[in-house]
Fold:
Amino acid sequence: MNTNRILEARRTVHVLATSLATILALLAAPALAEEVCFGGGPLSPCFEDRAAAEEFGRMSLLWQRSGSTGLVDEGSLSRFAMKGRDAYVRSNRTGTVLLRYPVDCRTDAQEPLLRVAYTDNGQAARVQIRLVEDSFDQFEPRTLVEFDSDLRPSSSRTQVYVMNVFPQTPEGIDTIDAANRLVCSYASYHIEVRLSRAAGGDPRLSMLSLSGTPLVESSYFD
Structure:
């Protein structure tokens, strides 16, 4: 009996030690960014993290377009439809519509944020967005940030989401560009959107915008 109690006590100590080690490891790990949402209205924005929410209130609008103003890829013309500000896939078609939106920014901007208003009503719909940078200094266009509605909750209502163009590591180090800016003084930008529909789906793009802190006296050589 005494031997059994000793073995049971050892097992208990081992379990407690393992649990304590797990808790300490979780506390030591970098905290994951949590999405932040405000309000309960149909266009209440959700932000990638709290830092993006705080930055957004201090920034200037750099560029904005409605979904219906995009340049439609030739291969998507038979599937594309628009109404008001919305771009979407015709209800009698399935497949993907490819749209491009030239970004005519005139001022370099630091710590930019991309805001999208979209609809994804479920598994039969998908909205994919990417911001692309191109310049003579680059051999190929560079994707700065991507959005995929399949990674967020679906809804038949329009949703608004705001994300950092230049994501930060847990240590606060920029992962893409040391300047952490849109350099409109030497690079060109466009936004590519793919609306994918299967039977019953209703993917839509309503609005796109870029906000940031303008750098009035900036140049490529800063």
